[in-house]
Design brief:
34% of the residues lie in helices and 31% in strands. It is α+β, with helices and mostly antiparallel strands. It has a single domain, classed as Imidazole glycerol phosphate dehydratase, domain 1 (Ribosomal Protein S5, domain 2). A hairpin with a 2-residue loop joins strand 8 and strand 9 (130-131). Helix 1 runs parallel beside helix 4 and helix 2 (65-83) packs parallel to helix 3 (133-146).
Length: 195
């Protein structure tokens, strides 16, 4: 069946359901009400080989902030839950993702300690209906809700769509590596004995 999790969250601003299978094949059903965010989550699912269902009904008449951030919160919770006790996983993952002119490095540590280091620069205020500043807030929410150390570094790029896509695909590849099984590890990969 794979390592799966389903998480729901309802507030006055958003109502969200997320299902993830870390051992999937990249099947995605995404509906957040923000087309570009849907596209990025579809890229994340396909390139990480995660099966992912995301449904969000948010207060988009206000702006995209609550939807983007809250989807990040719930996705992070689902990733953390699907990882379980983290026994037998690699824990660390990194990937340098080229996307035409863009080049983004992503590194992940499923340490249980939340931290985001984000060095990505956009030159437009929005891509489609997603404010580019919300890409930072999305990854912040994911990293803190999942309890992961996440680094995103833009090395090159001028096309904003490509830069954003490289972030999401790079994150997918790094997370797939970090959450992947390592046969030589019988417990948790930590000198502490737990993560």
């Amino acid at each position: 069946m794979g390592r799966t999790a389903e998480v729901s969250r309802k507030t006055k601003e958003t109502e969200i359901q997320v299902f993830i299978n870390l051992d999937g094949t990249g099947k995605a059903e995404i509906s957040t009400g923000i087309g570009f965010l849907d596209h990025m989550l579809d890229c994340f699912s396909r390139h990480g080989l995660f099966d992912l269902n995301v449904t969000c009904h948010g207060d988009l008449h206000v702006d995209c902030h609550h939807t983007a951030e809250d989807v990040g919160i719930v996705l992070g919770e689902a990733i953390g839950k699907a990882c379980g006790d983290k026994a037998g996983i690699r824990r660390y993952g990194n990937f340098m993702l080229p996307m035409d002119d863009a080049l983004v490095l992503c590194a992940v540590d499923l340490s249980g300690r939340p931290y985001l280091s984000y060095d990505v620069h956009f030159t437009v205020p929005s891509i489609g209906e997603l404010d580019t500043e919300m890409i930072h807030d999305f990854f912040y929410a994911v990293s803190y809700s999942a309890g992961m150390n996440l680094h995103l570094k833009q090395i090159d790029g001028f096309n904003n769509h490509h830069i954003a896509e490289a972030c999401f695909k790079g994150f997918a590849k790094a997370l797939d590596m970090a959450a992947g099984r390592e046969e030589r590890i019988s417990g948790v990969w930590s000198t502490k004995g737990s993560l």
